[in-house]
Amino acid sequence: MNLKQLRYFYEIANEGQITRAAKKLHIAQPPLSQSLKALEDRLGVILFERNGRRMELTDAGAVLYEKAKELFYKIDETMIEVKETGKGVRGTLSIGCNKSCFSRIPKTIRTYQEKYPQVKFKLLEGDSYFLTKQLVDREIEVAIIRLPIDMNGFSYLRLPEEEYVVVIPNNWINEPDKKMISIEELVEIPLLLLHRIRGVGQFELIMDKFRDKGLTPNIICESPNVDMLLGLVTEGLGATVVPKSTLLKHNTSNVSVLHIEDTHIVSESAIIWLKDRYLSKSAERFIELFN
């Protein structure tokens, strides 16, 4: 088995068809089919089941695919490391960010570009579960996320804590100078809360604060998208509880922002990256700006 055979197998698995893999590799179909047959003969196993036009990995094929993926990741990272030796910071830096953390990005990127003008950026938005998966799949190099997450397999730098605030329609406030609201008062208000697609996060943190006081909130909407929730609050459908920085890019003229009294609720966030992955110079310099 050689690297060319392994690369051909890997691309067939990725594309699910010999035809599409051949187009991606810029070769004809017969040599690709012959390479796969030779690899199966060499290993003495069937790597794919043919399901119509679709090529589906067998158990043996799935094992080889995972090993090949790790191998090609290492090869790609080795090439980047070698190319970066003796060179300045350049290339494309892929960053993931929770929408509720985006306020940390613009000024940091502006400072970064002033220092390293040859670096371009690829930005990806998603919740913490989605972004950790993108890190594992090597689609991004670093991510700025809300905690908690399972930190196993990740290195991280914790960022300053943020206060959670209540955002509520102006016409729901009876006292013009009201600055605080209690957990007990929130029970009487329809709530729209951030909730990850998967995993434990801000939703569970806020729910625990209600449970600590023996209270059950009236939650009428859950969403991983903070912009959607703030839009619904602006339309008078309910109130929400969000990290304070999420309001920086929103028009707050139709809503009131209240602090939560008698309850300490803070949002923790971090910039994270894979422990076992070579970190490019551009990523290292980006992380340094958060220290």
Automatic annotation (TrEMBL):
Residues 1-58 form the HTH lysR-type domain. GO terms for molecular function: DNA binding; DNA-binding transcription factor activity. The keyword tRNA processing does not apply. PROSITE patterns: HTH_LYSR. Keywords: DNA-binding, Transcription, Transcription regulation. InterPro entries: LysR_HTH_N (IPR000847), LysR_subst-bd (IPR005119), WH-like_DNA-bd_sf (IPR036388), WH_DNA-bd_sf (IPR036390). One of its GO terms (cellular component) is protein-DNA complex. Belongs to the LysR transcriptional regulatory family. This is DNA-binding transcriptional LysR family regulator. The lineage of its organism: Bacteria, Bacillati, Bacillota, Bacilli, Bacillales.
